[in-house]
C-alpha cells in the first residue's frame, strides 16, 4: 500500500508505504510543506497504519527542510490517539543533525508521543531499520514467552 501527497504547489513531498518484506510502514518527507500540507500527509499516513495495523514506523526526514516542530502539538492531539489505536508502538525518526526534522523528532521524543510510543532518533535509515528489526524480534519473542509461575503463555 503506497500513498503520495502533493503540496499546494503540486509537488510530491510525502510518500508512505507499507513494506511487507520489512513489516514496516515507511514515511519519506521531501522538500517543504505548509502546515495544511503536513496535516494532509499525516492523515494519509494514518490511513496506511489503520489498514495495515503495523506497529513499526520509519519516519525519514533527511530530505525535508520545512520547519514543523511547531506542529507537534497538533500531532499529539490529532495524530497520536489514532496512531496508537491503529497499532503504532515503535517510531524510528531519521533526520539530519541540527535540522528542523531533528528538532521535531526531539519534541516528539520528549512529549506525549514519546510517552505513548517508543520513539528513537537516528541520523541514517540503516540504523533506524536495524532498531526496528530488533524491536520486531523482541515483540515476536514476547508473544511466545511462558509465565514461569503457571507454565502458561505470558
Largest sheet geometry: 6 strands, mixed
Tell me the Rg in angstroms: 16 Å
CATH class: Alpha Beta
Q: What is the fourth-level CATH superfamily?
A: STAS domain
Low-confidence stretches: none
Tell me the CATH topology: Transcription Regulator spoIIAA
The secondary-structure element order is EEEHEHEHHEH
Give the helix level as a range of percent: 40-55%
Give the strand content.
25-35%
Shape: globular
Can you count the beta strands? 6
The CATH architecture can be given as 2-Layer Sandwich
InterPro entries: SpoIIAA-like (IPR021866)
Protein name: SpoIIAA-like
Pfam families: SpoIIAA-like (PF11964)
Organism: Pontibacter akesuensis
Describe the model.
The protein has a 6-stranded mixed sheet, with helices on both faces. α2 links the parallel β4 and β5 (90-94). With 154 residues, the protein is of the alpha/beta class. It has a single domain (2-143), classed as Transcription Regulator spoIIAA, CATH 3.30.750. α1 packs parallel to α2 (72-86). The longest helix is centred in the C-terminal third of the chain and has 19 residues, at 125-143. The radius of gyration is 16 Å and the shape is globular. The chain is built from 5 helices and 6 strands. The model has no long low-confidence stretch (mean pLDDT 85). Helix content is 44%, strand content 26%. This is SpoIIAA-like. Pfam families: SpoIIAA-like (PF11964). InterPro entries: SpoIIAA-like.
Topology record:
Blueprint: E1 2-6, E2 12-19, E3 24-31, H1 35-52, E4 56-64, H2 72-86, E5 90-94, H3 100-110, H4 112-116, E6 118-122, H5 125-143
Parallel strand pairs: 3-4, 4-5, 5-6
Antiparallel strand pairs: 1-2, 2-3
InterPro entries: SpoIIAA-like (IPR021866)
Organism: Pontibacter akesuensis
Protein name: SpoIIAA-like
Amino acid at each position: 500500500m503506497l500513498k503520495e501527497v502533493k503540496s499546494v504547489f503540486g509537488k510530491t513531498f510525502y510518500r508512505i508505504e507499507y513494506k511487507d518484506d520489512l513489516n514496516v510502514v515507511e514515511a519519506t518527507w521531501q522538500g517543504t510543506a505548509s502546515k495544511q500540507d503536513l496535516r494532509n500527509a499525516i492523515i494519509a499516513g494514518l490511513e496506511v497504519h489503520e489498514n495495515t495495523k503495523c506497529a513499526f514506523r520509519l519516519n525519514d526526514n533527511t530530505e525535508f527542510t520545512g520547519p514543523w516542530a511547531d506542529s507537534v502539538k497538533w500531532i499529539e492531539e490529532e495524530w497520536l490517539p489514532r496512531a496508537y489505536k491503529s497499532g503504532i508502538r515503535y517510531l524510528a525518526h531519521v533526520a539530519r543533525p541540527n535540522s528542523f526534522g531533528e528538532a521535531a523528532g526531539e519534541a516528539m521524543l520528549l512529549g506525549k508521543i514519546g510517552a505513548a510510543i517508543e520513539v528513537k532518533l537516528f541520523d541514517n535509515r540503516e540504523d533506524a531499520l536495524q532498531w526496528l528489526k530488533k524491536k520486531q524480534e523482541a515483540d515476536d519473542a514476547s508473544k511466545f514467552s511462558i509465565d514461569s509461575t503457571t507454565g502458561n503463555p505470558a
